Amino acid sequence: MKERNSIEDMYLPLDPKLNFLPQNFQNVHLMGIGGVGMSALAGMLKYMGKRVTGSDSVLYEPSKGILERLSIKVYSGYGHNNLKDRPHLTIVGNVIRRENPEVEQLSKLRIPYLSMSQAIKEIFLKDKFSIVICGTHGKTTTSSLCSWALECAGYSPSFFIGGVPKNFPFHFRVEDSPYFIIEGDEYDSAFFQKRPKFLDYIPQIVILTSIEFDHADIYRDLESIKEGFRMLIRDIPKEGVLILNGEDENIREVAQEAVCKTITYGISNKNNWYFKYLGIKNNYSLFNVYKDGRLYSEVKSSLYGIHNITNITAVAALCGYLEIPDSLFKEAMESFLGVRRRQEVVGEGRGITIIDDFAHHPTEVRETIKAVSDRFRGRRIIAIFEPRSNTSRRDIFQKDYIDSFDKADIIVIPDPYRKDDIPEGERFSSELLANRLRAKGKDALYIPTAKEIFKFLKSALRAGDVVIFMSNGSFDHLPEKIGKFLS
């Protein structure tokens, strides 16, 4: 992982001896509670009977609504007074910097602290059979699918997911079951723990969906990302299993580190588990899943797109390994309702469909648009992409995005989110992307702000359109605003 050289990294305001889980702790404070993972952890602690508070500069959905439903007190902004009750433990999110005023107070009061991933390991995973779902793409959907499959099979798993599955009231659950399904993020854990979160998750089974370059703010290059995954694979015990996407060359390379059993899945019949796509009928994707050349299950799912069918095939491999009957797997896939902000229809009116999606990497943008184009064949696809992630705001993928919008009829690109935070020489140019797309013959528009996009859509939309918003943030709540406008 990349070394940082900013002033904030030049000193260590926290005593490493305080980086531990105190016995019989009751009061917990979470700094940066607004992140989806941190809000899930807050909920898990609340369900344990702990007194939970948190702080953040601003709250977005879905975390905002979840924390309100759980009646967890959240301080607006960071400050010394947020720790006035001297919690027994503070959990520090990875958005928190060393010069944060609460970090200063935490150090002064000598309160024990953990990162999010450390807390999950120490509090929840020590006595569990941990199933870790990881990869650059698809881990949230695959984690949700796995959780629902095991639920339908009667396993009652605990789970921790980086998005909100619609089949459950929350994106977390704590149960007595030995099984714990956890989405394993390759992003770093905290300013005092510069390594992937998934290295804390004590894996018995790992599902590895994909490996590509991402997170340019903390990783130097693809090789440094691969090394993180190699470390994870080395953590799988001999009696464990690695379920891997056999279509991914980078995964095949790092999988050579495995000392455990490996199971491959994908679209090719060279894999242990593979599928044959049959098409879409009555709003369901139809496909067959095979195990070692024999039909395992005839599946229909409300999810669409080859990437999602590949994710479902990974779940089939897990169910097969756990000896879950194929009938229960089939029932679970058919009844799975999806994940919020993953190809989620958030509004319909005047014959227009509004979709909200989390896509931000060039591969995700391309596969999402392809899936929507296939699902809504014959309709005009308007793709609106906000460069918002730490990587997409940089010029790392400036050229790669050119091929991501081939299946869209109209493309709208606003300025990167908080573009002034990125040095001008490293900054992604939305205007340049729009120009290059037009040079390819695409109908692409550079519209700098969400307010201007809203005005454009009000005049441009017509019956039959499908509008897909892609951003890993709130996008100024544009999908909801357009949905309300249409209704």
Name a few traits of the molecule.
single chain; about 475 residues; alpha/beta; 10-stranded mixed sheet; 6-stranded mixed sheet; 13 helices; about 25% strand; disordered N terminus
Strand content: 15-25%
User: What is the strand arrangement across the widest sheet?
Assistant: 8-7-9-6-12-13-14-15-16-17
How would you characterize the largest beta sheet?
10 strands, mixed
- Give Rg in angstroms: 22 Å
Q: How many beta-strand segments?
A: 23
Portion of residues in helices?
25-40%
The chain-level mean pLDDT equals: 93
In one word, what is the shape?
Answer: globular
The helix-and-strand class reads alpha/beta
Distance between the terminal alpha carbons, to the nearest Å? Answer: 47 Å
Q: Give me the number of helical elements.
A: 13
Give start-end ranges of low-pLDDT stretches: 1-11
Structure overview:
The protein has 487 residues and is α/β, with parallel strands linked by helices. It has 13 helices and 23 strands. Strands 8-7-9-6-12-13-14-15-16-17 form a ten-stranded mixed beta sheet, sandwiched between helices. Helix 5 (139-152) packs across helix 8 (306-321), helix 5 crosses helix 9 (326-335) and helix 12 runs parallel beside helix 13. The longest helix has 16 residues, at 306-321. It is globular. Residues 1-11 have low confidence and may be disordered.
